[in-house]
Design brief:
By secondary structure, this protein is of the alpha/beta class. The protein folds into two domains: about 100 residues, Enolase-like, domain 1 (2-Layer Sandwich); about 260 residues, TIM Barrel (Alpha-Beta Barrel), CATH 3.20.20.120. A hairpin with a 5-residue loop joins β13 and β14. α1 packs across α3 and α9 packs parallel to α10. The relative contact order is 0.16. One of its GO terms (biological process) is D-galactonate catabolic process. This is Mandelate racemase/muconate lactonizing enzyme domain-containing protein.
């Protein structure tokens, strides 16, 4: 056993927030509490919990998780759960490193040796898709994801949807699969049309066809398309997930490990999904710590389908990417659409603390972009 002596967080470019926990025996672990566009809010939550959890037993991961959830009175939501994720992931990393085993060994042991992965192409205003897809194929990917559209009005011209269909056809012509992310920017009048238009071309899935607050609309849409419906990045706990499973309107759940309270809650959500025959495809356009944490859960989940990874994603500017901040970036090598399951202790990655500390100095918070329509109205990003 070892008591927590120090909890630190580091805001690093391009838009990530790392957490380091140390105990009185010299053991350390790393977590990721990234919440895109809301870094300062998560940092404020971490400030309050840091003071609280100094002196707790680092091994008591579930006790600390439940303390964070049940004694806050106001619970859940993206800020609390992202802060909790940073702590939870770091505690799992610390414990597994202390024992000299991968985290997945503490979760029951692996059920696979390789992890199927996909990467982004296209950016916020998708274009030049075929060349980007070819580049991903050369990197070893067989599946990609892209935004379906640029910004749309509530009821826009049907012609705005044509390009999305052509982009999907271009990727499919290369022998690759493609998920289409509606990104919640497509409202119901357009989402119905786009889902129908894409269906003959067999997208891997359609993601966030409507915003999660419109569960009735998602259920109705699920009944008029055979394309698998994926969602979950804006659900923050098993309680948020439950109504979507009960409604039978989701085929692929995409929880974000940095937004759902970490490895502990992701594991529970995966088990819930298995009971409903829903696949697990974790959302992760984030950093190497979050991805490594996902892989630990992917390794033990029978219903795992495919893992998002942020290698070369369009927002990674300034030189930092998935291969940054670690000393063994070779773990992210993609071959035949898969990465090998890491075998090292803890998360299986070695954090370059010197680089983290250097680049965290004066790091600016990332601000979520927005779209403005031709009438000056705000549109969903």
């Amino acid at each position: 056993m070892g008591k927590i002596t120090n909890i630190e967080y580091f805001r690093v470019p391009p838009r990530w927030l790392f957490v380091k926990i140390a105990d009185d025996a010299g053991n350390v672990g790393w977590g990721e509490a990234s919440l895109e566009g809301h870094t300062q809010a998560v940092e404020g939550c971490l400030d309050s919990w840091i003071e609280r959890y100094i002196g707790f037993e680092a091994d008591d991961i579930e006790h600390i998780w439940q303390m964070s959830w049940r004694t806050s009175f106001y619970r859940g939501g993206p800020v609390f759960m992202s802060a909790l994720a940073g702590i939870d992931i770091a505690l799992w990393d610390l414990k597994a490193r202390k024992l000299g085993v991968p985290i997945y060994q503490l979760l029951g042991g692996k059920v696979r040796d390789k992890i199927k992965v996909y990467a982004w192409i296209g950016g916020d205003r998708p274009g030049d898709i075929e060349q980007q897809a070819k580049a991903r194929k050369a990197q070893g990917f067989l599946s990609v994801k892209m935004n379906g559209t640029e910004d749309l009005g509530w009821l826009d011209s049907p012609s705005t949807l044509n390009d999305c269909v052509e982009r999907l056809k271009a990727v499919k012509s290369l022998g690759m699969d493609a998920g289409i992310d509606f990104h919640g920017r497509v409202h119901k009048p357009m989402a119905k049309q786009l889902a129908k238009a894409l269906e003959p071309h067999s997208p891997l899935f359609i993601e966030e066809p409507l915003l999660s607050e419109h569960i009735g609309g998602i259920k109705a849409l699920s009944q008029i398309t055979s394309s698998p419906i994926a969602l979950g990045e804006r659900l923050h706990s098993r309680w948020d997930v439950r109504p979507f499973l009960e409604a039978g309107c989701v085929d692929i759940l995409q929880p974000d490990i940095s937004h759902v309270g970490g490895i502990s809650e992701m594991r529970r959500i995966a088990a819930m999904c298995e009971a409903y025959d829903v696949a697990l495809a974790p959302h992760c356009p984030l950093g190497p710590i979050a991805l490594a944490a996902n892989v630990q859960v992917d390794a033990v989940s029978a219903n795992f389908a495919i893992q998002e990874m942020s290698l070369g994603i369009h927002y990674n500017v300034g030189g930092q990417d998935l291969s940054s901040y670690t000393q063994n970036p070779e773990v992210w090598k993609v071959t035949g659409g898969y990465i090998d399951l890491m075998t090292g202790p803890g998360l299986g990655i070695e954090v370059d603390e010197a680089q983290v500390r250097r680049l965290s100095k004066d790091a600016k918070p990332w601000v979520s972009p927005g779209f403005i329509g031709p009438g000056g109205e705000i549109r969903e990003w």
